[in-house]
Design goal:
alpha/beta
Length: about 300
């Protein structure tokens, strides 16, 4: 079964202008068509379909693709990249995980480091965390904004609602410019419940092979859960557009979130009407000429082998 038949992307897509309340979205939703084992088999087959689309994207050389993954800690961003994108040709895929900005990055506008990571035509780029950290982490911890040394912003109380509205507008302008120049943008929020995050944190603590995934910083940020939920609601509401839509993906069951993301990516690939380049008559004639030349070389080689054998 093709990926485009599996997932109704409209169920997860945030329509432009929608005011999002994450409480209205079920973190445990897994659809009604299949279970875990079937979904994993479908995803395995789906990777081949995505790989074919990537090949066409590269050959077509008109579009690039930017996939944004955002979520609370332990929601499954890394594993989604591993399980969904593993079928892609690594030569045409880049993955960037944006951590706290460096001193050099802070000396530029907040989008600068993201511009540098954008995909070229024919490429796919995955942002594991992204430019949205600048309206999420900084929204919860506005004191971080002071490190940007912005004109007129020298105290937290000067970071007003208008500041965030302006930053949302800047992000939309950035994404609209990318879209108009051939970049397809798909943004996924992996919607995890507080209880499921607790379960996954405990697994990281109890399983020695997963200890490295846990840090006390994760636990500190968990204490700001409600603030992050509000920050995500406002960011998604303000920046989900027709040219760069947000999709809210239930993430309590990883097998479903992976299949949902893969299915949505595939359906949007199809919207691009990708195809291998067609040749004109002159180019076709050149191919025929090249084929005759190669076949002639093969005939000469056979003749030489026969000649050596007869001796």
């Amino acid at each position: 079964m093709k990926l485009d038949k599996l997932i109704d992307f409209n169920k997860h897509k945030v329509t432009q202008g929608t005011k999002v309340s994450l409480g209205d979205y079920d973190t445990e939703y897994t659809g009604e068509r299949f279970g875990k084992r079937e979904a994993e088999a479908l995803l395995e087959a789906g990777r081949e379909q995505l790989a074919e689309m990537q090949d066409k994207l590269y050959a077509h050389n008109r579009y690039s693709v930017l996939i944004v993954l955002q979520a609370m800690d332990a929601a499954g961003k890394d594993s989604s990249i591993k399980h969904i994108m593993s079928g892609f040709n690594p030569q045409g895929v880049k993955v960037f995980s944006f951590k706290a900005p460096s001193v050099s990055e802070l000396d530029h506008d907040f989008l600068w480091r993201h511009y540098k990571a954008l995909p070229a035509r024919g490429e796919i780029c995955i942002f594991n965390r992204s430019h949205y950290e600048n309206v999420l982490v900084t929204r919860v911890h506005p004191e971080y904004i002071l490190s940007e040394h912005l004109p007129g912003i020298d105290a937290v109380d000067k970071i007003t609602d208008d500041f965030w509205s302006d930053r949302f507008r800047q992000i939309c302008r950035f994404e609209e410019n990318l879209s108009e120049n051939g970049t397809m943008i798909l943004k996924f929020f992996l919607h995890l419940s507080l209880d499921e995050q607790k379960k996954r944190f405990l697994e990281r603590i109890d399983d020695p092979s997963k200890n490295w995934k846990f840090s006390m910083g994760d636990l500190v940020e968990r204490g700001f859960w409600n603030s992050y939920q509000r920050a995500y609601e406002e960011a998604i509401s303000a920046t989900s557009t027709d040219y760069a839509p947000w999709f809210i993906i239930p993430a309590d069951d990883k097998w479903f979130s992976r299949l949902a993301i893969a299915g949505i990516i595939y359906q949007y690939f199809e919207k691009l009407s990708l195809h291998y380049p067609s040749l004109n008559e002159s180019q076709k004639a050149e191919l025929k000429k090249a084929r005759l030349q190669l076949m002639s070389e093969q005939t000469v080689a056979k003749t030489r082998r026969k000649s050596r054998t007869s001796r």
